[in-house]
Amino acid sequence: MSARTLPLLFLNLGGEMLYILDQRLRAQSIPGEKARKDEWTDVDRKRVMNDIIATMFNKKFMEELFKPQDLYSKKALRTVYDRLAHASIMRLNQASMDKLYDLMTMAFKYQVLLCPRPRDILLVTFNHLDAIKDFISDSPGILNQVDETFRRLIETYNCLSDGEFQLIRQTLLIFFQDMHIRVSIFLKDKVQNSNGRFVLPISGPVPWGTEVPGLIRIFNHKGVEVKRAEFSTAGNYVTPQREGSFELYGDRVLKLGTNMYSVTRPVETHMSGSSKNLASQAKENIAPNPLAKEELNFLARLLGGLDIQKPAGGETGFRLNLFTTDEEEEHAAQTRPEELSYKVINIEATQEPGRRAELSRILGELEVAEPRPGSAEKGEDLLALMDGL
Amino acid sequence: SQAAWCELPSRVLLVLTSQRGVQMYDSDGSTMVFWHALDVPEHPAAHSVFARGIAAAGGRFVCVGTSFGAVLVFDIPPKGTNVTLSEVLEQHRDPVTDIAAEQGQAPDGAGDLVTADDSGTLCLWSTGEEFTLLGKIPGSGSSCSSVRLWNGIVAAGYGNGQIRLWEAGSGRIRAQVSAHARWIYALDLAPLTGKLLSGAEDSFVHVWKLSRNPDTDDIEIQHCHAECVTDTQVCGARFCDPAGDTFAVTGYDLSEILCYGPA
Known about the structure:
The complex is a heterodimer. By secondary structure, chain A is mainly alpha-helical. Chain A has a domain at 5-197 and 245-262 and 297-304 and 317-326. Chain A has 14 helices and 8 strands. In chain A, strand 4 (215-219) and strand 5 form a beta hairpin. Chain B is 0% helix and 54% strand. Chain B contains no helices and 23 strands.
């Protein structure tokens, strides 16, 4: 597995999250003069986007992220996004947060799967970053942070070989394996089947550097071509026009990773999947995770390092609903299958050194020397205990 | 992680590779015969560490590739667990992708083992107490993801969807096929007939026929059959019999093994 996968996973999922939040905020916003105290305005929306993006691209956070390391569990990663989504005046209920995460992950899974070349995953990342820069185009300070990360990506990844990118791609696909949540915008566009699996087209442009299938060339022992033959298949491929740009600015050519949401297309997810899939996901949650404590330490450090703006006194947090009505959100929370619940950890970690030392002490006390006999859930216990913090 | 049956004259071993190293089991999977750990650095390095590429060779050895580019040669006793690391071949500068032993009859001077890496470089070896490098075919920018060797013909599948046939003795290219629209994941060869199976991320599995023209000595490849595994990126493809009449396919997110046979 590749130890360079986490930055790509984090940035692309973050990008999808921002697309969805932006769409929902626009859909629910009221023109400034007409808005009541508890309703969203354009100003609020811009502020939320700015706050979240600034937190995401925080320098210390990025430094930690780019260190070679294994991917973290779905649980640990989900907690980071939970925290990120609450980096501003916006609040999300559990059901909305679950839906947000489902959409983010299925969208990125789709993009990874359909990448023509393994290294095109970088173009997908650049597409997300280009769009993020657009969201904060009038905040030069944050723009700088994003450009810094952009440069870091180019420095770290542009020189990697196809083989290394394929390893990164495989690491990502394993992370997303067996996830088949149905997304209505995908179903409508016929990009996903009703069984949750994505449609893999067998037509269109071939990847840059690949030839359209069909030609057989035979050479003699002197290396001279002596025969040509053709074979045909059901596929209907064409030569690509040009290669996407891997520079700071440029036409990426690839559409994967660009914003597919618009205000008029609300996004719904369907929770059902075949029982086989649910069973395999449930098994994954129960298996002991020896990295759990490592992840928690990392998370605690990261979250402690995040510069989170708390609403100033007197300001109330605004709640964003990912569903069309409050009743729908409530219903979704009650009917979510147990196997698909994310079991989020709530960690209160702040910048105050006193609190941080306290947290480390608590984590130290939670250290379990050896598994209790018959206990198959060492990792689970730790995570459950953290819930109570 | 990979798994492969290594058939030697005296015994059959199940060999597994992973990020930690190499494990070898008896053919019923009950006893672990041997375990070789790769040197794993303290903290995850930027470069991944893993073993990849497995083949039985020379009637006596099991060869395993590594991400360092080195090929480990293990000497396997006819019985018991006294497996020893007999040699480390260091000709590849990129991670090893696949290794294949001659499945038919090697012509004189052709070698009986081929190793491939991420840069597309192929190395040809003659096995024995000491392995000898007979030739090196440089890569041309695309990773060689899988390789097979039959009657002195090297069949190589690449990340850009191409299949190339090379003359093992001379190292010259003899055929080039624009076979797939995506990364080729698997190649397999049926030694009784010279049928070649290729599976790739483009959802297609193709069956080809390799042959040598007795008059011109040209190597020929014909397309026999195509199967499209709808909406599935094929990750594995293997013939189920030495004549290549049936084959099995696996894919990403697929919990089934699909078997194809004559109508």
